[in-house]
Amino acid sequence: MKIIKILGVAVVLTFFAGCNKHYQNPDIPIVDIDITIDPNSTVFLELNTPGGWCYLNNKPGVYIPVGSRGVIVYRQDMYTFKAYERTPPNDPYKCCKSDHTGCSKLTVDYPMIVDSCTGNTYSILDGSLIEGDGVYPVIQYKTHYNGNLLRIYN
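^ thats the sequence. predicted structure below, dont judge the formating
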């Protein structure tokens, strides 16, 4: 009987841990992202080595759809990339003008991602909240790297 209780608690905890990883603030519109870049090119010099990062919204030839404030790309190791939305996940409109323009964006202060408006800090490794108020992690996009091209999408 004791083993059944322990297994039941383990299943419930696993379920809740899995649920918390992928939810996002419903106040943030879902934007279709599908970007392909060559992270080894000179255009993306910052991504040529592990630990490098860049903002895609200031790179030539990269189209960021309306509704997104940009994308942060981080090269974790030779074959692993992370991509995050720059819209603050917990209070996205706190530092905007009344017409929702001029809004703040997340920035990198390696090894963290920072919301300069609220002071919240997030891990660049997985987008989780490290310090500050809120319940939502940074919105993370899927990535696929074939050794040559990096695709960022949702």
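The chain has one domain: 2-153.
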